[in-house]
Amino acid sequence: MRSRAPDCPAVKGFLETSFVDWKGHLAFVVFLGGCNFRCPFCHNRDLVLNPGGFEDVPLEYLVATIRKYKAHWIDKIVITGGEPTIHKNLFTLIGLLKTEGLSIKLDTNGSNPSILKGLVNDGLIDCIAMDVKGPLDRYSRWCGSQIDEEKIRESIDFIMECGVDYYFRMTVVPFLHQEDDVYTVATELQGSKDLIIQTFRPDITLNPAYEGIKPFSPDKMARIKENVSDIMSGKPWTRDRGLRLPGTSFRGTEELYQ
Ligand code: SF4
Predict the structure, then answer these.
(1) Confidence (pTM)
(2) Whose CA is nearest to atom 2 of ligand 1?
């Protein structure tokens, strides 16, 4: 049996059911390997750095499993990574899954606006979740790679205007981000539908130095989310609005930025 169709990207794993990968929905999740970013806080380290270390899931097996779950309660699939849009043949895989009659959500880092546009224009995508790593003017700092910030902006603009459902997400990482950075991102995304603020998880990280960083407390995260919600609803953010939390100078040692 052939392990995958020759023009599909290799599937590196799947989750039959997830409540957390498509906001408000139960979904089947498909993982693709590799990424063009090196976010130091990434918790998919092996999938990003060593996708060849994972066996390919045979496409026939994937489709058979999706059909089995579809027969009961699944009508949505999330395509995630790594970064799915680095695979130029992503269209083939999503097209194939779409013929199963399921809605598709794409997780992306926004670095490939032309692929995003192609997928949306071909009617292959029902929802997009884009991870925004930090303020646009220092993007390489957040994502660990030299990238074209204009492409990130282009993806954001396209997602907001394309008519497909979407939301943005940001993971708040002590020492990497200052609190001001979170509010700058919220300001840059004003007018968009939603920005979900996520708590950093230090269990496995791409840069091992990040495994020693403690996430912010639930109280502090709740206050940050409240401030972000205010900004997203149109309130202007300025440093003198009192949004800065006490004692939050988050910059750390240089090894955290490598
Ligand atoms: S967190 Fe960063 S490095 Fe990890 S998969 Fe997402 S974009 Fe790639």
Answers:
(1) 0.90
(2) 39
